[in-house]
């Protein structure tokens, strides 16, 4: 039962969300260990093929700690996605995490954005898409 | 010994790897491709590895080599259709193929090559018109 629970939790904890045509988001929540990052990586790569995605956004807002191992796993995922022809953007790195990463000497040579919306904006710009606010024109006052 | 066919599509060369690569086949491909790039003055090389299920470090290095050779001969290499499992293997082997451009499928890879050829044409035209 416990093993089945573990596999189910592992499956539940790595959702890949399609944001729009060609853009995927991968919101990561909770601590990343090597087994989980493996699942994350496989899920992401399969989804890239399935949705024919150009850009994948890895959002680590919900990741409490990033050590060298996790950073390395992230880099591996990014490298693998690049090999398949998709770009990765990392978003939602918390201030403390940014500090620890610099202190640990971890270098993420990838595009990173402060939050998911910035990352999404960048993704749209790269695909040459724009978001237009579609406010109804207020009908002119007859008077 | 069988060889991997190399097709010419305009100014690009198309290589589709349909069988499992062994070392000698990879080396033959490297050699054939080099000769063909020079022969046709190709500006782009598209390598489709969507049917390739197993790669080892040698095949990975050969791909990187081909890209480097092509770059010296003024051709762009795009590797397309890599499977997730293959991508993971290559990364675990420490081969992230930095000099190789990648695309999700052959269609997008071809678009990348065509863009590049168009860019080069535009620059040549610009220079012919006396530049500015």
- The spatial strand order of the largest sheet of chain B comes to 1-2-3-4-5
So what's the oligomer here? heterodimer
* Largest interface: chains, residues each: A-B, 18 and 19 residues
Major beta-sheet overview of chain B:
5 strands, mixed
- Unreliably modeled segments of chain B: none
Alpha-beta content class of chain A: alpha/beta
DSSP E strands of chain B, number: 5
| Number of helical stretches of at least 4 residues of chain A | 5
**Shape, per Cα inertia axes of chain A:** globular
Structural class of chain B: alpha/beta
Helix content of chain A: 40-55%
Which radius of gyration of chain B do the C-alpha atoms yield? Answer: 15 Å
The major sheet of chain A is characterized as:
5 strands, mixed
Total DSSP helices of chain B: 4
Helix proportion range of chain B: 40-55%
State the total count of DSSP E strands of chain A. 5
Give me the side-by-side strand order of the main sheet of chain A: 1-2-3-4-5
Plain-language structure description:
The complex is a heterodimer of chains A (143) and B (132). Chain A contains 5 helices and 5 strands. Chain A is of the alpha/beta class. The longest helix of chain A has 18 residues, at 34-51. By secondary structure, chain B is α/β, with parallel strands linked by helices. Chain B contains 4 helices and 5 strands; from the N terminus they run ββαβαβαβα. Chain B has helices at 23-40, 57-72, 84-92, 106-128; strands spanning 6-9, 12-16, 44-48, 76-80, 101-103. In chain B, helix 1 links the parallel strand 2 (12-16) and strand 3 (44-48). In chain B, helix 1 (23-40) packs parallel to helix 2 (57-72). The longest helix of chain B is centred in the C-terminal third of the chain and has 23 residues, at 106-128. Chain B starts with 5 loop residues before the first strand and ends with a helix. The model of chain B has no long low-confidence stretch (mean pLDDT 87). The A-B interface holds A 41-42, 45-46, 48-49, 52-54, 76, 79-86 and B 79-80, 82-84, 86-88, 90-92, 96-97, 102-105, 108-109.
